[in-house]
């Protein structure tokens, strides 16, 4: 992972810096052995005593940019704000090192505004990419050859992956573990980190409601119940009745709390369930559609192509299963 140490690490960038350290840096031999060999590679410029250095964290590493060449994966978690806001040059040597690493076969990854470094190196030309929604307009304007998508959490373009900011970076790092080591390992690691096991990259960044306006605890029981019964037909009226609300009140409160409509929320949950089954079981696509509540195999394929961008079969091939299969025992039916 690249650390632009010459200006220190501002406190507001510590989160993105710490995500790869947490996901890849701590060995998990009971999940996969060997784990990742994780190294921080600094840009090596002298430390400046400016505001960012004084109020941030200075990082000294034993590895430099030359060590990026030969890595299997290179992560750029962020770049200095001046490179984004003022068009300042990237840290010396960084762009060339990224080009050399990619030419040598490295998988290139950016979190948040780290996409500006990949774009400067020409690695995003002709590719779909994303960044934090606050920076995507600048990214698109400065690099017109990049197909910037400001609506998604992350983009997996094979050997080049980009994510939005903050928690979306964690989603992408867990996605990499899922690709490399399988769904079981990624799910167990996410459980240890007390985070959701998988949010699909195509999920919206929720620009206006990235944090729910209200913490509507009254909705939690009915939403938890719905997740356990996705294999059965569910309507807004059913959920509203179970929540002891009118359909109109339920609609309004769910939209206020989640930023989406009840039907879209249900579709998202069904897709997440289908993805989990495809990743962790060998069930036929028809059965996956049934258990997730998406219906027929054709209906499952339709929603997958529209929301995820690939067919269920292609999605399953991208996530080779390791570890025990997920239990698909049908939950006990409860009366509405």
Q: What can you tell me about this protein's structure?
A:
The chain is an alpha/beta fold. It has two domains: 2-193, Rossmann fold, CATH 3.40.50.880; 217-318, Arc Repressor Mutant, subunit A, CATH 1.10.10.60. The protein is built from 15 helices and nine strands. The strands form three sheets. A four-stranded mixed β-sheet has the order 4-5-9-8, with helices on both faces. Strand 6 (128-129), helix 6 and strand 7 (147-148) form a beta-alpha-beta unit. Helix 10 crosses helix 11 (247-258), helix 12 (262-280) packs antiparallel against helix 13 (285-292) and helix 13 crosses helix 14 (297-308). It is globular, with a radius of gyration of 22 Å. The N and C termini lie far apart (51 Å).
Radius of gyration over alpha carbons? 22 Å
Instruction: Characterize the biggest β-sheet.
Output: 4 strands, mixed
Quickly give the CATH architecture of the largest domain: 3-Layer(aba) Sandwich
What best-fitting shape do the alpha-carbon axes yield?
Answer: globular
Give the count of helical stretches: 15
The amount of helix comes to 40-55%
> Which fold does the CATH topology of the largest domain refer to?
Rossmann fold
CATH class category of the largest domain? Alpha Beta
Say how many strands there are.
Answer: 9
Indicate the low-confidence ranges by residue numbers: 45-56, 206-215, 329-336
What is the CA-CA span between the terminal residues? Answer: 51 Å
Please state roughly what percent of the residues sit in beta strands, choosing from under 5%, 5-15%, 15-25%, 25-35%, 35-45% or over 45%.
Answer: 5-15%
């Amino acid at each position: 992972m690249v650390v632009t140490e010459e200006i220190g690490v501002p406190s507001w960038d510590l989160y993105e810096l710490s995500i790869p350290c947490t996901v890849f840096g701590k060995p998990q031999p009971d999940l996969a052995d060997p784990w990742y060999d994780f190294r921080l590679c600094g840009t090596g410029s002298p430390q400046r005593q400016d505001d960012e250095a004084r109020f941030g964290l200075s990082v000294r590493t034993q590895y430099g940019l030359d060590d990026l060449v030969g890595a299997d994966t290179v992560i750029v978690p962020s770049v200095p704000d001046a490179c984004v806001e003022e068009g300042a040059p990237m840290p010396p040597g960084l762009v060339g090192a990224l080009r050399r690493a990619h030419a040598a076969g490295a998988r290139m990854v950016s979190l948040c505004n780290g996409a500006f470094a990949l774009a400067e190196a020409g690695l995003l030309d002709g590719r779909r990419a994303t960044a934090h929604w606050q920076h995507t307009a600048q990214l698109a304007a400065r690099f017109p050859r990049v197909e910037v998508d400001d609506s998604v959490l992350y983009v997996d373009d094979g050997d080049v992956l980009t994510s939005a900011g903050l928690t979306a970076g964690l989603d992408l790092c867990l996605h990499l573990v899922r690709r490399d080591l399988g769904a079981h390992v990624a799910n167990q690691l996410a459980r240890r980190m007390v985070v959701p096991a998988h949010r699909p990259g195509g999920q919206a960044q929720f620009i206006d409601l990235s944090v729910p306006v209200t913490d509507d605890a009254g909705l939690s029981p009915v939403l938890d119940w719905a997740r356990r019964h996705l294999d059965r037909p569910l309507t807004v009226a059913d959920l509203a009745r179970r929540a002891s609300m009118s359909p109109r009140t339920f609609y309004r409160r769910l939209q206020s709390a989640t930023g989406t409509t009840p039907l879209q929320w249900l579709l998202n949950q069904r897709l997440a369930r289908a993805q989990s089954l495809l990743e962790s079981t060998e069930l036929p696509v028809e059965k996956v559609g049934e258990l997730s509540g998406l219906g027929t195999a054709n209906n499952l394929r339709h929603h997958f192509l529209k929301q995820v961008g690939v067919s269920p079969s292609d999605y399953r091939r991208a996530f080779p299963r390791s570890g025990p299969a997920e239990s698909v025992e049908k939950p006990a039916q409860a009366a509405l």
